[in-house]
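We now fix the convention by which a protein and its fold are recorded. These numbers are not coordinates but entries in a learned vocabulary of local backbone shapes. A record is reproduced here so that you can trace the correspondence yourselves:
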Amino acid sequence: MSLLRIALRFLILLVSQAAMGALPAFAQSGEPGCRPEMASYRLPIQRAQLTRDEVRLTFVGHATFLIETPGGVRIATDYNDYVRPPVTPDIATMNKAHSTHYSNRPDPGIKLVLRGWDPEGKGAARHDLTLGDVRVRNVPTNIRTLDGGTDYDGNSIFVFEIGDLCIAHLGHLHHPLEPGHLRALGRVDVVLFPVDGSYTLDQEGMLEVLKSLQARVMIPMHFFGGGTLERFLSRTRDLWPVERRGEPAITLSRAGLPARPTVIVLPGR
């Protein structure tokens, strides 16, 4: 092989490796902080080794978590084009309040794409299905419209039942929960909730939601930066203990839940 041909092959290899490491371009969104760096969490996700009673949660960023079951099912919450897990999930849930909570171009490898609204506008979305060892269902909620009105049943809280553990992702919740919502949700062991206090429900209202749910683990999301998160945590000082974790992933089981409701902060945005 000539030296010129070797040099050309080496150059092609370098260019292809650089292309593989490049970040895609991102559109702008109506919510602050949804810049390309939001997708910079290149988490080295390996398939979780879990016992039959365990679930692993990884905070990818914004409102997106990767949920992994003992049977190997992977779920991405509020799946969108800005913040995605570095693996193709089996299930993707979405809400439509902003483009950072849904995708019109989901990965074709996803087995189930569950939208928290009825795309045909005929009423509330209704999901209750099982894939492998996870049951996924939704509880419809309302959202504010740009003109100040209400889009009834425009979003959903998604509930994931895995073994004995019940996980609720509040999505882009805009209002307090009524008794009907609480009955539909049932027991919640782990709640993933937004704390920005403006685009979603205000922080005082969110505190009331958490009090009504009485989940043993409460994980904040959708906070756009440390200042907003710290303001929320300052409001919880006399209510619940706070644990700060250094890693974005946490493994949970019902038997291992804290004895009293606890806020657990995972690094992310």
In short: Confidence is low (pLDDT under 50) at residues 1-29, 32-42. The chain is about 15% helix and 30% strand. The longest strand covers residues 150-162. Residues 3-20 form the longest helix (18 residues).
